[in-house]
């Protein structure tokens, strides 16, 4: 007949800490499904618990293995093949009692004295388990079908997820290439912006230069207007210029005449100065002679005076 399901319950699964061999380590974050099977051919039990895709318990219970109750809701057994100790925490004492009936507790084994009694007890347990399992077969089939459907959905979702991941990878690669292209384009645009800014600066300078040239042009236009106005009086100015030229020529002739007169006057003055110097010399000589005559006259007068006194 092979392995037959007996019953299913929910419990918190623990394993002994391999380093300390004292502390319990939770094997699941919450209560999980724990299923019990019986193999008629091998006369052995197997406990299986699966949390999602992870197998937490896959333990074959042999007759020499014992399920030990450590409290009203907790039991444990040692599995030499798995090289660990499993612990189950139930929500009620009834669930613990039902689980411990699979291979018997220490107390139950101690109450039997012989192999026949033990076999009878095992058969009774088997009958009870089979009775209970018969009632749960349909439930197991429903749950199995639900698990199959769930597994199919998960497989489909996994395939879709794998396809989505591949598509996402392709999209990511495309986006990365596009991002690199955009970065290169941004660098080009930044360089173009810098060039545009430089051109703007040049345009600003050119605009200022154009404004300066326009201002200068306006000034030149004003000067040109003034020159045009002045050009209207050029004939009159030329006529005046000719008149002035004629007067200038007459003045130059007069000036030449005056220069000739001045030169003649200079000659006359020089001659006059020469005559004056000559006259001054003659005058000095005359004065010297006169002074001598005057002195002689004084002497003569003194002589006369002396003569008159003597007389």
Automatic annotation (TrEMBL):
<protein>
    <submittedName>
        <fullName>Homer protein homolog 2 isoform X2</fullName>
    </submittedName>
</protein>
């Amino acid at each position: 007949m092979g392995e037959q399901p007996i019953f299913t319950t929910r419990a918190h699964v623990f394993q002994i800490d391999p380093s300390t061999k004292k502390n319990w380590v939770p094997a699941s974050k919450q209560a999980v499904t724990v299923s019990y099977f019986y193999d008629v051919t091998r006369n052995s039990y197997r406990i299986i618990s699966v949390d999602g895709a992870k197998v937490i318990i896959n333990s074959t219970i042999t007759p020499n293995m014992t399920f030990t109750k450590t409290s009203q809701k907790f039991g444990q057994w040692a599995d030499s093949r798995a090289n660990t100790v499993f612990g189950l925490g139930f929500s009620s004492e009834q669930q613990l009692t039902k689980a411990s009936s699979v291979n018997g507790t220490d107390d139950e084994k101690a109450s039997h004295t012989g192999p026949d009694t033990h076999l009878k007890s095992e058969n009774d347990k088997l009958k009870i388990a089979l009775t209970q399992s018969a009632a749960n077969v349909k439930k197991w089939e429903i749950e199995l079908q639900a698990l199959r459907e769930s597994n199919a959905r998960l497989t489909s979702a996994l395939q879709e997820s794998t396809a989505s991941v591949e598509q996402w990878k392709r999209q990511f690669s495309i986006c990365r290439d596009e991002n690199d292209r955009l970065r290169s384009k941004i660098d080009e645009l930044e360089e173009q912006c810098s060039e545009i800014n430089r051109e703007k600066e040049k345009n600003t300078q050119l605009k200022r230069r154009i404004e300066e040239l326009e201002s200068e042009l306006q000034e030149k236009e004003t000067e040109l207007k003034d020159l045009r106005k002045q050009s209207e009086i050029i004939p009159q100015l030329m006529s005046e210029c000719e008149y002035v030229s004629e007067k200038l020529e007459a003045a130059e002739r007069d000036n030449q005449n005056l220069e000739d007169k001045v030169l003649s006057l200079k000659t006359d003055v020089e001659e006059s100065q020469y005559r004056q110097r000559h006259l001054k010399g003659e005058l000095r000589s005359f004065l010297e002679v006169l002074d001598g005559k005057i002195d002689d006259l004084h002497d003569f007068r003194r002589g006369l005076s002396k003569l008159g006194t003597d007389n």
